[in-house]
Write a sequence for this structure.
């Protein structure tokens, strides 16, 4: 079972590849793909799509895991994040990858045990659950790893 | 100038191909692409993407026109419509097509002269602006034609 996990965004797309081997989660790859604010949205979406296709080709995952987005207001940002999700779901579906989606609450519970966890708690717990090489990581990358951990913990 | 216009939706995707020739708008093609409610969302998105790729290949448009979506509440439907928009924008961008986006209000003004127009007014006006073969059409198809008319009227 190998999962390509995303924390969807158009400025920063967190990505992680995780695998379950002998009941243990292993992190194979993680990154934060960034796009320039100088580019228009379609170009940024196209760059993120190219990076996603590259990841699918390089890592041959069995499935894709994504965080669900909830709109709390009529924000342009929330809509553009949903548009990134649409591109990711489309690419996963055209590559016959199963799509697993989790609410932010489900991710928090899977990683910290509590739905009230904040970003600091996630950042503290993720390295305790999977081996991560040293070095500072952006929240988006850690969130993608957390989504991947949630997926491997819940899929049978 | 040839435009591929969409009224984005995942149950029904309205599509229209329009061209401006000697200052006159001509409708070359329009349809309402439907997906089965029995399919999961990723499969529906994948089917709509395949239909979009077919339209791009068949009609070689210079640009794509889309209606903007506004979220008035935290609805699953609104998010899924944004996800369809993301897939459409991604496919347009990867085919180097310019993307034109219009608010529902801009479309109403372009087609009926008033931002307060309802669906009936749109349905009455669209056949007065472009030649449409007889037969009943779904709102989604008429809306896609209206978006295409708006685009041809505003792009120089």
């Amino acid at each position: 079972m190998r999962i390509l996990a995303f924390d969807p965004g158009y400025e920063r797309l967190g990505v992680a590849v995780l695998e379950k081997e002998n009941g243990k989660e292993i992190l194979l790859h993680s990154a934060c793909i960034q796009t320039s604010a100088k580019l228009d949205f379609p170009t940024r979406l196209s760059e993120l799509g190219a990076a996603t296709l590259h990841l699918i080709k390089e890592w041959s995952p069995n499935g894709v895991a994504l965080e669900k987005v909830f709109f709390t207001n009529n924000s342009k940002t929330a809509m553009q994040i949903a548009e990134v999700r649409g591109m990711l779901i489309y690419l996963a579906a055209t590559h016959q990858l199963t799509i697993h989606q989790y609410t932010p609450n489900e991710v928090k519970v899977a990683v910290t045990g509590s739905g009230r966890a904040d970003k600091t708690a996630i950042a503290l717990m993720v390295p305790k659950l999977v081996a991560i090489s040293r070095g500072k990581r952006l929240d988006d990358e850690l969130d993608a790893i957390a989504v991947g951990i949630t997926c491997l913990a819940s899929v049978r």
Remarks:
- Strands of chain B lie at 2-7, 12-21, 24-34, 63-67, 98-102.
